[in-house]
Amino acid sequence: MKNEPHLMAYSLKNIAVAIDFSDSSLQALQTAAWLAQKHKAQLQLLYVKEAEKISSLVADEDSSQKTGVVHALRQAIFHQFDVEPGLAELFGTPSSEIIKWTNQHPCDLLLMGSHGWSGSRECHIGTNAYQVLKYSACPVLLIPATAKPLAFEKILIALKPLAGTMHLFKMVRDIFNPEASVELLQHSYGRQVHHKQFSATYMQELLFEIDNGRGYDPFLHNQEEDIAAETIEAAQEKKADVLVLAPSLGRLSKIGYVDPEVQKLVNQANMPVLYLMNSSFFRTDQR
Questions:
Q1: Domain span at residue 264?
Q2: Are 17 and 110 in contact (CB under 8 A)?
Q3: CATH number for the domain harbouring residue 46
Q4: Which has the closest alpha carbon to 270: 145, 182, 152?
Q5: Cα–Cα distance between 188 and 195 in angstroms, integer?
Q6: How many separate domains does the chain show?
Q7: Are the C-beta atoms of residues 243 and 249 closer than 8 Å to each other?
Q8: Residue 58's pLDDT band (boundaries 50, 70, 90)?
Q9: Which residues 6+ apart lie within 8 Å of 122 measured at CB?
Q10: Kind and range of the H or E element at 134?
Q11: Strands 242-245 and 154-159, sheet pairing
Q12: How far apart are CA 60 and CA 45, in angstroms?
């Protein structure tokens, strides 16, 4: 094949999952264990004891009971997935401690529930989940309590046209499912609009080549402002199992900032979301 892109295999070696006993965090734990088994990766459970809640005797007793539950969960994961997770017991504000841990330890992927023990508010993910998205440099996979069984057969990647999309395409399939159907939802802003048809044709040809002739149909939504509504509509239409937010999607992507349209999208997605906006190891220059 002429000018075939060299696409490196992607695997996860270190996976972390934050647990707080909420329904969504237990779903995240199941997904993390499944991924750890699939990739033969190390799995680390992050359990944060909030400082203000461990000062009284009653709170200490409750904390001790929860620690026992954590150990029981570790045993259950071992028996179900043949994965022996490690445990990091942290103390403080959950989002701060989780971010600090992932910055200080090898972490290729962090999973957490989209809503914690305090439950969900309409059109808002949990406070801790949002803070982690803002400041975590490793990819974050948010799992809602309503997540489907572990399949990940249909993947939707929301992005703006960019170099390195083929690497992103292969990366998400390597993570989730090599046989998954992957579609690209390309958004265009202002002056990029006139490039959209060329971009779609070019991407379709390359993806057809690198995927053994199976072929994919990158489809475009050209509204310049309402990224969230367009993306959610497409995800529902395609019955996607997971939505991937590429680093190029926001108008401005940097640590500590979530583009308002992207924030709206994450809040309303109601499906597993792989957030790559801050990812320090997403590269477009791999050769």
A1: 154-275
A2: yes
A3: 3.40.50.620
A4: 145
A5: 8
A6: 2
A7: no
A8: very low
A9: none
A10: helix 127-135
A11: parallel
A12: 20
Q: How far is 92 from 74, CA to CA, in rounded Å?
A: 22
- What is the pairing mode between strands 109-113 and 14-19? parallel
C-beta separation of 117 from 145 below 8 A: no
In a domain, 283, yes or no: no
Are 271 and 235 in contact by the 8 Å Cβ rule? The answer is: yes
> Given a cut of 70, is residue 11 above it in pLDDT?
yes
Q: Hey, what are 68's tokens?
A: 């026992």
- Element holding 69 (H helix, E strand): helix 57-81
Pair 153, 177: CB distance under 8 Å = yes
Calpha distance 14→128 (Å, rounded): 21
Residue 188 or residue 47, greater confidence: 47
Q: What is the pLDDT of residues 255-267, one digit of tens each?
A: 888 888 888 888 8
Query: Are residues 29 and 17 in contact, defined by beta-carbon separation less than 8 angstroms?
Result: yes
> Any residues with CB less than 8 A from the CB of 143 and at least 6 apart, and which?
24, 25, 27, 28, 31, 111, 112, 113, 114, 272
Burial class (CB in 10 A: 0-12, 13-18, 19+), 221: middle
Say if CB 112 and CB 140 are below 8 A apart: yes
From 91, 109, 143, give the residue that closes a domain.
Answer: 143
114-164 tens-digit pLDDT? 876 544 444 568 889 999 999 998 999 999 988 877 779 999 988 776 656
